[in-house]
Amino acid sequence: MVSSVGTQRAMKATRHWIGMVLAWTVTHAAMVDTKAAESHRAGGNVVAPLPTVVSLVDCLETALRQNRELQIERLNPSLAREAMITAGAAYDPQFAVESRWESLADTGGLDPADFSRDAIYKADSETARMSLGGSLPTGMTYGLTADYAHSDGVRNALEFDAYSLRLGAMVRQPLLRNLWIDAPRLSIRVNRLQVKSAELALRFRVMDVASRVAHAFHELGYSQEFHRTHEELLRLRQSIHQTVRRRVASGTLTTPDESLAAAQVATAEANLASAFEALELARHTLRALLGDSWNTFESISFTATNALEIQPVNVDLADSWESARRARPDLALFQTELERHRLEARFWRNQLFPALDVVGIYGRRGASTAQVFPPFSTSARFGEAWDEVRDGTAPNQGIGFVFSTPLSRRAERSQYRTSKDLRAQVELRLLQQEENLRREIADAGTAVRAAWSRIDLTREARQRSVEVLEAEERKLSGGKSTVYFVLQYQSDLAQARIAEHRARADHLQAQIRLHFADGRLLERLGARFEIRGSDELVR
Questions:
Q1: How large is the greatest C-alpha to C-alpha distance in the chain, in angstroms?
Q2: How far is Cα 325 from Cα 519, in angstroms, rounded to an integer?
Q3: What was the pLDDT predicted at 311?
Q4: Which of 53, 332, 464, 475 fits a 20 to 30 Å CA distance from 85?
């Protein structure tokens, strides 16, 4: 008999296959963990120190490289792509192998539930089954199977040996429900849209951070000029105070005049302290946007260069709106969301149909059996069973239809109505966003024009304030004016300078808002944004 030898071979083969599968699984998991760790380390937390003098281009490059919001957001496209890959795995074929060894014995006797079970036998068997199955993008499901069985032993005093082979195939194709679109196809398309949405959201975040960086940069420039103006005012106050003290000593001015000048020096020093505080807070705001890690709480002094340099801008609101329709990522996000709801509505409409599937099967079977009375021995031949399979001696084939449908379909109808309402809601939200965007463009255009006109007016006011102060100082030297008027005109000059700087900063910030609204901010700032595979590059 060949039962013991066959059993050992089957068990050895089974252990070998199980060992290979476990080794592959552990190795693959280790590779995935290693890649994840390397990816995490690649993100890094290294923050470059700020130079003492920064330009807007320097700030943009630093922010787009180190800003924490962008570092977080830039991972979302990669996450969305992995989710899309996971959804596509629905079409990956499933391969399975099953192997089993059994030793069976029965002493016979009458079984009232099964009269055929009256045989006395003792047998060993080895069985194996391989299957490959999956689905296709048409909704079709398929399955391929291969079965092997070998049994030998004694049955009713007869020694027997038998081989059995089966090969089979099955396909099932929907004809109504799940024909146009089914759950896996919906998931893949939705996840593909999610990848696009994540990339658009990243672009919008880049624009938002760039806008805030530019706004903070120009605000820092204004704070620098504000601080510088108060420094100059303090210098003028100290100078006039010294002049008044000398003239009080000479008897040409009175002690109240000196007290007035000293009070104005103290006021100027207090205002300078407030200006320094505003300057430091402006630096903090910009540092936070640049991704500073705040490893030190000491003040980091850096200067924004050319922060209030202005250039005329041609404001064409109609052109800005056309540009916004093409380039604004948030509009494209709404359109992507609308496409997702259209897909879901199409899916639930297809679910309203009954399920009607066509099923086809085909298979072949082969067998080899031998049995004799002891003391003779015999053995079946595997090749004989294989020849029958190859020649198609014992085929089986068939085709049929499977029909099923819920009697009420209330859930499907409700889901379909819900999907249509959600689609209509997103359409209205898109219209609302377009209306808000048109107003945003109009507001920014108005702000740009108003700030530009203020620049000319405040420049003229500052020039005339300088002339008035110089004239009043000459009058004071000639004894034809008072200290009060000189101090007042010094304040007027400082306020005129501050107003001019404020108008310049407002004009530049209004330009930023306009370019952000029309979607051309990165282009105007000279930044280039692109996504390559899993790496987001912003320059």
A1: 149
A2: 8
A3: 82
A4: 332
- Asked if the bond preceding 329 is cis, omega within 30° of 0, the reply is no
- Which residues neighbour 170 within 8 Å (Cβ) at sequence distance 6 or greater? 142, 143, 359, 360, 361
Q: State the number of CA atoms in the 13 A half-sphere of 8 facing the CB.
A: 3
Closest CA to 519 of 426, 436, 441, 432: 441
Distance CA 333, CA 248 (A): 73
> Which of left, alpha, beta for 383 (phi over 0: left; psi -120 to 50: alpha)?
alpha
* CA-to-CA separations, 521 to 136, 233, 250, 476, in angstroms, rounded: 45, 37, 62, 52
For 180-225, write each residue's pLDDT tens digit.
Answer: 999 999 999 999 999 999 999 999 999 999 999 999 999 999 999 9
Length of the chain (residues): 539
Q: Tell me the H-state helices in 162-254.
A: 183-250
Cα-Cα-Cα-Cα torsion 26, 30, 32, 36, nearest 10 degrees, comes to 150
Question: 496 and 458 in contact (C-beta within 8 Å)?
Answer: yes
What residues form DSSP beta bridges with 148? 128, 165
142 and 136 in contact (C-beta within 8 Å)? Answer: yes
Count of CA atoms in the C-beta half-sphere (13 A) of 461: 19
What pTM does this model have? 0.79
Tokens for 415? Answer: 């889901």
- Report how far Cα 539 is from the mean position of its chain's Cα atoms: 19
